[in-house]
Amino acid sequence: MVIDFSSYYDLPRNMDSFFEELWKPSSLSQRRVAYPPVNISESEGEIIVTSEIPGMDTGDIELTLNEKSLIIRGAKKNEVGNYYRQERPTGSFQRIVNLNVPVQADGIKATMKDGLLRVVLPKARESRPLTISIDAQ
Amino acid sequence: MTNDLEKKTTPALPRFRPNTDVLEREDGFHIFVDMPGVGKDGLSIDLRENELEVRGRAVYPREENAKALHVEFGDGEYVRTFTISDGVDREGIRATLKKGLLELFLPKAARLKPRRIEIQAG
Lengths: 137, 122
What we know:
Helix content of chain A: under 10%
CATH topology of chain B: Immunoglobulin-like
Largest interface: A-B, 47 and 41 residues
Oligomer: heterodimer
Structural class of chain A: mainly beta
Shape of chain B: elongated
């Protein structure tokens, strides 16, 4: 006797998709909460901020460094024509990335490739020896 | 089942439906597809009968010796299919990928292009 469960009860595939769900990084559920999406990572000497901003000229993106934050700002233009479907975000956007460590403002490097902005912020050398001069009065 | 699980050790990239604009201009249809992180090597465009399928793989290099503090995006595969009407000149479809934005240009077939009809003085 052959019992074919396949149409009712696709257990192997259900199990597989269940495991697939488990593999997925849960952090990705945060996707598309704010525009543009930002990833932040930290190494010993640097803070690396990456952001997906497709279709933008580097000149149209403004990066500002404040005392405690990096601001990514810009505006996406509408295309000319008769829209049938519009899903790509347009208009101005801004993301503020708080930096919990002081960074060296003159050593910041920003590059853009395939719509990915990558900003490398070297941490300020906290261990830099400070000599304090004493004024004789 | 066990074999299937072994295969999963290199998990497939999560799939995303990329944000897309479709618009018409006088010369034809322009489709803009957001594909950040996709280079020319990771992109494939296939036209099968009436279906135009666009696939792009975005795989970002790992940051060496760095730990992720905050993650909002990651590697992925963008997949999107468009159905094309007969009014499109298939031979003339062009695609350009620039700054993570794919632009597809689908020219209108010659018979559908607006054209001025000369009036012959009789």
